Amino acid sequence: MITPRQAQLLCQIVDTYIKTAEPVSSKLIEKRGFFDLSSATIRNDMSELESVGYISQLHTSGGRVPTAKAYRFYVDNIVNRSDLTPSFESQQRINDAIKSGEINPVEINKFIARTLSNLSGQAVITAIVGRDEFYKTGISQLLNFPEFREFNRLMDMTNFFDGFESMFDQLERQFFDRASVGIKVFIGRENKVGEIEDESVITAKYQLPRHFTGSLTLIGPMRMDYLKNTGLINYTIGQLNNLF
């Protein structure tokens, strides 16, 4: 169990790492003025967080990086309790994407996938539940993340992307069980798919024209911007559910 102050510190570490992709030091936290605390006090709290598995140290002289456990804490305590409304410009682009598809479920899925991939910078797959209708886009977006400069990691993601159709029945059972409602976030090995066990997955179902149900899978590094991405998806499925 961590203290409220340590919880705040942990969320600041996660937030900072998401933005910078650089290990976070106690001096950086102090410099940015997140807390009215000395570097030594922050360092002690960071040591406590490390001892219980929330952060880890890549190099003896470097700062700390969040673990999957830290991202889960961040999603449960920050993302799930925040205003997820995207920017007005993003809302307009999502609305335009839905209109561009007219009342064709396949076309709507294509436009939605492209738009969300461009807005989020992540890979996106949309599907029509119960039919072999998939649209995949955004694998090139992931090249902007330093995580995917590792050849093996990029190949794992590419293999998952290429084999998505053949795995869809298995993935649908895991990501889109009948009881699932709203947005679900799978962090690291929570998704139980070997090729993407170092990444995070956000999924949701939504209504489409002609009584079809759509499914959306957004995939990116564990260091993705959860607030932004869940906000984009939340707005999108809300608009679709209201329309259809």
From TrEMBL:
Domain Winged helix-turn-helix transcription repressor HrcA DNA-binding as annotated: residue spans: 2-72
Keywords: Repressor, Stress response, Transcription, Transcription regulation
Record keyword Ribonucleoprotein present: no
Pfam families assigned: HrcA, WHD_HrcA
GO molecular function: DNA binding
Gene3D superfamilies: 3.30.450.40, Winged helix-like DNA-binding domain superfamily/Winged helix DNA-binding domain (1.10.10.10)
Boundaries of every Heat-inducible transcription repressor HrcA C-terminal domain copy: 94-227
Family annotation (PANTHER family): HEAT-INDUCIBLE TRANSCRIPTION REPRESSOR HRCA
Database matches in HAMAP family: HrcA (MF_00081)
Family statement: Belongs to the HrcA family.
Function as written in the Swiss-Prot or TrEMBL entry: Negative regulator of class I heat shock genes (grpE-dnaK-dnaJ and groELS operons). Prevents heat-shock induction of these operons.
UniProt protein name: Heat-inducible transcription repressor HrcA
Species the sequence originates in: Candidatus Yanofskybacteria bacterium RIFCSPHIGHO2_01_FULL_45_42
Organism ancestry: Bacteria, Candidatus Yanofskyibacteriota
